[in-house]
Amino acid sequence: MSQPRHFRGRRTFRRKPDTPRPIDAVRAEINVTPLVDVCLVLLIIFMVVTPMLQRGMDVELPAARRATEERDTGERLVVSVRQGGAVFIDQAQVTLPDLERYVRLALGHHAGRPIFVKADARLRYGQVREVMEACHRAGSTQVALATQETREAKD
Description:
The chain is an alpha/beta fold. About 25% of the residues lie in helices and about 15% in strands. The strands form two sheets. The protein has a five-stranded mixed β-sheet with strand order 4-3-2-5-6, covered by helices on one side. Strands 1-7 form a two-stranded parallel ribbon. The longest helix is centred in the first third of the chain and has 17 residues, at about 35-50. The termini are far apart. The model has no long low-confidence stretch (mean pLDDT about 75).
């Protein structure tokens, strides 16, 4: 049975294993090169963006000449205090009287979990002390203050 002349579609047939493949034949193999390229680009984007992520609220930190830089591994609880006195646990705002209760809940059974206090440089010492005392009353044994290292100009 022959096909009509106006039919120009591709014929399907089985070829013998020893016969060469036609040049314009469709290959049934997956090309993974574009997939690898996309994955590498995404990996580079995450590597660049991840260090820029910060936890807690954005505050102007006090300056210190010798500050130890520690990477945030995500295990610390971040308590931020803004210039107006607003207190935040990570991104959630809490009142100062309720801070102890919320810190206790956030710590759970891990009283040894460190707390990182990010206080605005323009705050009075007494306001920051109250926040630190609330963290200690909640059961925390490790409370650290965040500072920003100053870069002194060399003459």
